[in-house]
Amino acid sequence: MTTGQGMTPFASALDKKTMEHGTVLAPKFDEHGLIPAVVTHFDSGELLMVGFMNETALQRTIETGHAWYWSRSRQEYWKKGATSGQVQEVVEIRTDCDQDAIWLRVRVAGNGATCHVGYRSCFYRRVETDQNGQPHLVFAETERVYDPAEVYSSK
Amino acid sequence: MTTGQGMTPFASALDKKTMEHGTVLAPKFDEHGLIPAVVTHFDSGELLMVGFMNETALQRTIETGHAWYWSRSRQEYWKKGATSGQVQEVVEIRTDCDQDAIWLRVRVAGNGATCHVGYRSCFYRRVETDQNGQPHLVFAETERVYDPAEVYSSK
């Protein structure tokens, strides 16, 4: 795969009007060179996950049609699904008004789950508050697609 | 409004199992004290915007039922809709497996738009590539809810 090493594939430093009303892709990466990527399922619209991309991860995603991220915890490139099979086939990429966020609309290969905990979506818990206003989590999804312990355990 | 100044309202430093499988809300803020918040419309499911919250903004959102953010560009608290009327009435808040992202499911007051450019969603442009693989933007939404220039211009 050509990743354009040494190239700066995207425009930068556009004026506000061109950034918001124009047709030039000029993603604004933060001081760590990252941009958040929101991932929804193309068919159902459900929110699946949020990841972070650097310039090369975004470029690879555009070039290959599969979602690539930069793992902040592991400090390495991460092709979603490379080990799990839960590859994200990108149907559409959007950006927002000030181009500091990416939206991927995807279909999910493999077993169809996105979350490493086994749920379709990483957002399987909602926030509720008790009578004192203290927040806690409640499971909004209770059915997992798979049990990661069974998949990855070695007998 | 009580914002719990001086308090640390959320748990932190949970072990991985409790973080992923438990019911304790322990949002992971980054080194700037921020967490990305994805905002979708509760009824239509459409992705409206991505913002960033610090601990107090998240706490205010939970307490008030209206979405608060931390503006990175202006370095100040930002109640969405305070000037535009496009207040986000929060129907549900979720977090993800490792609690480093927030999902707000909202209804939008005022004229129903979310984007300051006038569109319902900030994600009104998609990425397409030309025959050389070079990316550019195409308008996915063409109808604006309002023209900000007309609203804010002083005659």
UniProtKB/TrEMBL annotation, chains A, B:
Gene3D superfamilies: 4.10.80.70, Phosphoribosyl-AMP cyclohydrolase. Keywords: Amino-acid biosynthesis, Cytoplasm, Histidine biosynthesis, Hydrolase, Magnesium, Metal-binding, Zinc. One of its GO terms (cellular component) is cytoplasm. Binds 1 Mg(2+) ion per subunit. It catalyses: 1-(5-phospho-beta-D-ribosyl)-ATP + H2O = 1-(5-phospho-beta-D-ribosyl)-5'-AMP + diphosphate + H(+); 1-(5-phospho-beta-D-ribosyl)-5'-AMP + H2O = 1-(5-phospho-beta-D-ribosyl)-5-[(5-phospho-beta-D-ribosylamino)methylideneamino]imidazole-4-carboxamide. It comes from the Bacteria. Mg(2+) binds at D96, D98, D100. One of its GO terms (biological process) is L-histidine biosynthetic process. Its EC number is 3.5.4.19. It is found in: Cytoplasm. Pathway: Amino-acid biosynthesis; L-histidine biosynthesis; L-histidine from 5-phospho-alpha-D-ribose 1-diphosphate: step 2/9; Amino-acid biosynthesis; L-histidine biosynthesis; L-histidine from 5-phospho-alpha-D-ribose 1-diphosphate: step 3/9. Pfam families: PRA-CH (PF01502). Transmembrane segments: none annotated. Homodimer. This is Phosphoribosyl-AMP cyclohydrolase.
